[in-house]
Design a protein that fits this description.
Blueprint (H helix, E strand, L loop, with lengths): L2 H5 L3 H40 L4
């Protein structure tokens, strides 16, 4: 959406669009955190397996 297009949209529509984008951002951040946690879990598992046992 361009700045010109935003000028033609009413306040309620802008707030609705902002709400939608905020929700999407929150979902993406949560998904990123899940992926990062899984990668960390895998890294720790590989490190633990690579260490020789005494």
């Amino acid at each position: 959406m361009t700045k010109v297009e935003l000028g033609f949209i009413g306040d309620a529509e802008l707030v609705e669009e902002l709400s939608l984008l905020t929700t999407q951002t929150a979902r993406m951040r949560a998904r990123m955190a899940d992926i990062m946690a899984e990668l960390e879990r895998r890294r720790c598992t590989k490190t633990a397996r690579a260490r020789p046992r005494r």
